[in-house]
Each structure stands twice: as C-alpha cells, then as structure tokens.
Amino acid sequence: MATAVMQWPGSYCDTKQSCCYPTTGKPAADFGIHGLWPNYQDGKYPQNCDSKNPFNPDKIADLRSSMQKNWPTLACPSGNGVGFWTHEWEKHGTCSESVLDQHGYFQAALGLQKQVNLLQALTSAGINPDGRSYSLSNIKSAIQETVGFTPWIECNTDTSGNSQLYQIYLCVDTTGKNLIECPVFPRGKCGSEIEFPSF
Ligand code: 5GP
C-alpha cells in the first residue's frame, strides 16, 4: 500500500522556516502534492530503495506542466521543482518501482490529487482557507463524506504558535490508483480546533 500526502501551501509558508515560491511563480491556493509514499501495513516506510534508478526528468516530460501546477516546491531557495521531485522519487518512489515506473509514479500521484479534490471537499462544507479555526473532526468528516475514506491530518504551527492544517494523508492500494481505508493512523499532534490559514 501507499500513502498520498497533500500539503497546504499557506501552512508551509507561515511558519518560522518560511517558504520560497517556485521559480515558475506563486502556486495556486490549493492543496499541492507532497508525495506518494509506499508503506507497510504497520505504518513504517521503506526508504531509498534503489540508488541505480535515479530521477530522470526526461521520463516525465509530458507531465511537467501539470507537475509544476500541482506539485510545486515551496522549500528555499526557490527551485523549479526538479529537486523536490528527485527527492520524492529517490526516497519514496523507488520503493514501489516494481509496480510503478517513474512515469507511472508521478502520474498516479497527479491522478489521486485530482480525484480527491480536497479544497472543494472542505469549502463545500463551509471550511475555508480564511485564517479562522475549524474543528478537526469537522475537517475529517468533510473529507470522509466526499472522498469516501477517512484522512489523517497533520498539523504544524505558525509563527504565533497556533496549530494549523498542514498536510492531509490518504491511503491507497499498491497500484497507487485506488483509495483504501488506512490500516493504521500515526499519532496526531493537532489540537481539537485548528486554523486553516489563507495563502
Ligand atoms: P519527505 O518528507 O518527503 O521525506 O522530505 C521532503 C524534502 O523535500 C525536504 O528535504 C524538503 O526540504 C524538500 N522539499 C522541497 N520542496 C518541498 C515542499 O514544497 N514541501 C515539503 N514538505 N518539502 C519540500
């Protein structure tokens, strides 16, 4: 199985570490992909599974514009995304290479992000990126109702120390195509009310 991880850019950027917009410009105010992480049923992740299969941008040339839009890098210094995608493929992607080649891996992640449409799931339940606080259980229910599966929510803290919605985790089968119920959830560190910052 694997876990699809989506990040809210506003919560990456309003922290102490801050962020840098990609060289291609400010990303859309939407959940971007962080990665697709193959993992075991017990929640552990294998890592860096094949150093002989390095990331090769030529293999995903046809996906590049979609990647720039949907899988933007926010780390500093500003990059064009290749560094982030290289890291994700080499650390995580290589661990499912028997099922998904490089093109298949990135395509699967893009497909999942489109399928789940997390921002729409939240805003249609009145949960908007407006800097206000929302209950964690309402956030989870809104996603469970439209996506059909329970997500795990990861929080981080802004510069004032408020707990906020940072990343959303959804479990998928080994093909990276079908959502499944998560067999285990990591321990949470969100408050019961969390902020949804603007971006
Ligand atoms: P991971 O959590 O996938 O193991 O590691 C994420 C790595 O990718 C970090 O070293 C981080 O610096 C880099 N990175 C580049 N851009 C981003 C981004 O937009 N979000 C996150 N979370 N990490 C990024």
Automatic annotation (TrEMBL):
Read off the PROSITE patterns from this record. Answer: RNASE_T2_1, RNASE_T2_2
Q: Which domain of life is it from?
A: Eukaryota
For this record, an example GO cellular component is:
extracellular region
A Pfam family this protein belongs to? Answer: Ribonuclease_T2
Could you list the residue ranges forming a coiled coil in this record?
A: none
Q: What is this protein called?
A: Uncharacterized protein
Give one GO term, molecular function aspect: hydrolase activity
Cite a single GO BP annotation: RNA catabolic process
Q: What does it do? A: May remobilize phosphate, particularly when cells senesce or when phosphate becomes limiting.
Provide this UniProt record's keywords sorted from A to Z: Disulfide bond, Endonuclease, Hydrolase, Lyase, Nuclease
Q: Where is the active site?
A: 34, 88, 92
Q: Which family does it belong to?
A: Belongs to the RNase T2 family.
The beginning of the lineage is: Eukaryota, Viridiplantae, Streptophyta, Embryophyta, Tracheophyta
